[in-house]
UniProtKB/TrEMBL annotation:
Pfam family, one: AhpC-TSA
EC number: 1.11.1.15
Keyword Oxidoreductase attached: yes
Domain Thioredoxin residue range list: 8-165
Keywords associated with the record: Oxidoreductase, Peroxidase
Family matches, as CDD domains: PRX_like1
Enzyme class of the recorded protein, top EC level: oxidoreductase
Gene3D superfamilies membership: Glutaredoxin
Position of the signal peptide: none
SUPFAM superfamilies per the UniProt record, alphabetical: Thioredoxin-like
Domain of life: Bacteria
Gene: bcp
Statement: the UniProt record of this protein carries the keyword Kinase: no
Protein name (Swiss-Prot/TrEMBL): Peroxiredoxin bcp
Length: 182
């Protein structure tokens, strides 16, 4: 049964972090920020919603980079139970998809808890001051990609880059629940 993200406290500051990335580097929140903002998207390797969304997420990551907004993916799933989400598999997935953004491992799950993330894929869009302006879905795709779906994440982040605010209508993310440790 899919999990839906709750509404967000817009304007909240992005929680800081330092996490290992699949490229062998450690990344901090500040090192990831683009001149016009940052998207943090909670993803994982095994979720069918993430797999379906990945082509559109990659397309949007490239388009957002062009307007000064960076993206980072974070996997917070319990890899001891969901072995497809282990760090070595994350490295393989990042290479297979040629991800245009850092893919980070939140082994302790502290960062997912700090952000209040509940599902994958779930997007948190921050302005240039790292204040939350968008929380929700990439687009209306579910377990199948919808190539003509309205680009909710992209449109919200473009508005944030231009005006400092996202449009009023924000749609919740829907996907697999984050797999929490016992």
């Amino acid at each position: 049964m899919p999990t839906e993200s709750p509404t967000a406290e817009l304007g909240a500051a992005a929680p800081a972090f330092t996490l290992p990335a699949t490229d062998g580097q450690s990344r901090t929140l500040d090192s990831l920020k683009g001149k016009n903002g940052l998207v943090i998207v909670f993803i994982c390797n095994h979720c069918p919603y993430v797999k379906a969304a990945m082509p559109n997420l990659i397309r949007d990551a490239h388009a957002l980079k062009d307007i000064g907004i960076n993206m980072a993916g974070i996997n917070s799933n319990d890899a001891s139970v969901y072995t497809d989400d282990a760090f070595d598999r994350m490295i393989a997935v990042a290479q297979e998809w040629n991800l245009p953004f850092p893919y980070l491992h939140d082994e302790t799950q502290e960062i997912a808890r700090a952000y209040g993330a509940v599902c994958t894929p779930e997007c948190f869009g921050f302005d240039r001051d790292l204040r939350l302006r968008y929380r929700g879905r990439i687009d209306a795709s579910r377990k199948e990609a919808l190539p003509d779906a309205r680009r909710d994440l992209f449109e919200a982040m473009r508005s944030i880059a231009q005006h400092g605010e996202a449009p009023g209508q924000q749609y919740p993310a829907l996907g697999c629940s984050i797999k929490w440790k016992a």
